């Protein structure tokens, strides 16, 4: 469901927080409830178009899940280190989610943009709202599960959460699903029911940006 055209969406709002001259292709922000399928879609995008997209590796204070790698999935840090770096101004945005800190460092986005790749950020709703206050001007995409029941099933099947963190994530999901309807918050809402269909929608929405990158890297 295309909420509004993707072209020419760079908001002209005043009073934005500068991101220290970051430049390059227009970034993409993926948001949506935990368990909606953001990482799954993102992994496929990076597998299929690895030379065009780059993932902005966030920092988090949560523990790594089995198979997650430091520096690839996240930078896993202590709360103390993260708070120090936030105070030093190293982050574009940060938020507390389900009892842990998460944040996008300026260095993470810069590293992707330096390669002339489309930087993809995976952030929660607070991150979306905070990025709107910066001059990053990404395309905002909300990944939505078909229903809260399906979301719960997927989170349970992923087998990464305790009952406590599952409950926190589902509570946040309820709020996120409502917020996603807010006029102008997202450029595109993708309902991730069938994975292939959802992926095709994502790929199609980003096809113009991909062509732009391919054109500039060939010239
Ligand atoms: P997120 O990154 O948004 O938290 P994940 O990508 O980890 O979500 O997906 C949550 C779980 O749901 C994973 O186990 C994933 O394999 C599964 N999943 C993702 N998309 C689909 C889909 N369309 N159909 C069924 N299962 C899915
Ligand atoms: P998870 O613990 O499942 O990896 O992530 C939990 C939530 O944190 C997800 O909604 C994810 O989008 C969000 N998240 C991951 N990295 C960041 C970040 O850098 N900033 C913000 N604001 N949210 C993030």
UniProtKB/TrEMBL annotation:
It is found in: Cytoplasm, Cytosol; Photoreceptor inner segment. The keyword Transferase applies. InterPro entries: GK/Ca_channel_bsu, Guanylate_kin-like_dom, Guanylate_kinase, Guanylate_kinase_CS, P-loop_NTPase. GO terms for biological process: dGDP biosynthetic process; xenobiotic metabolic process. GO terms for molecular function: ATP binding; GMP kinase activity. GO terms for cellular component: cytosol; photoreceptor inner segment. Residues 25-207 form the Guanylate kinase-like domain. Its EC number is 2.7.4.8. Gene3D superfamilies: P-loop containing nucleotide triphosphate hydrolases. SUPFAM superfamilies: P-loop containing nucleoside triphosphate hydrolases. Catalyzes the phosphorylation of GMP to GDP. Essential enzyme for recycling GMP and indirectly, cyclic GMP (cGMP). Involved in the cGMP metabolism in photoreceptors. Monomer. Interacts with RD3. PANTHER family: GUANYLATE KINASE, GUANYLATE KINASE-RELATED. This is Guanylate kinase.
């Amino acid at each position: 469901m295309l909420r509004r055209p993707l072209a020419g969406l760079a908001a002209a709002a005043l009073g934005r927080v500068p991101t220290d001259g970051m430049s390059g292709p227009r970034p993409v922000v993926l948001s949506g409830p935990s368990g909606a399928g953001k990482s799954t879609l993102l992994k496929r995008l990076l597998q299929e178009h690895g030379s065009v997209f780059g993932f902005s590796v966030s920092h988090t204070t949560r523990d790594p899940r089995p198979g997650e790698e430091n520096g690839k999935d996240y930078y896993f840090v202590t709360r103390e280190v993260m708070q120090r770096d936030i105070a030093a101004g190293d982050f574009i945005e940060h938020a507390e989610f389900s009892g842990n800190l998460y944040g996008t460092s300026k260095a993470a986005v810069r590293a992707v943009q330096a390669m002339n790749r489309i930087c993809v950020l995976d952030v929660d709703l607070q991150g979306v709202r905070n990025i709107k206050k910066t001059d990053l001007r990404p395309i905002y995409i909300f990944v939505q599960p078909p229903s809260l029941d399906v979301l719960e099933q997927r989170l349970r099947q992923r087998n990464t959460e305790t009952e406590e963190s599952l409950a926190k994530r589902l509570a946040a999901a309820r709020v996120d699903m409502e917020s996603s309807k807010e006029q102008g918050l997202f450029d595109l809402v993708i309902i991730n029911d069938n994975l292939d269909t959802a992926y095709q929608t994502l790929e199609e929405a980003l096809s113009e940006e991909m062509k732009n990158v391919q054109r500039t890297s060939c010239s």
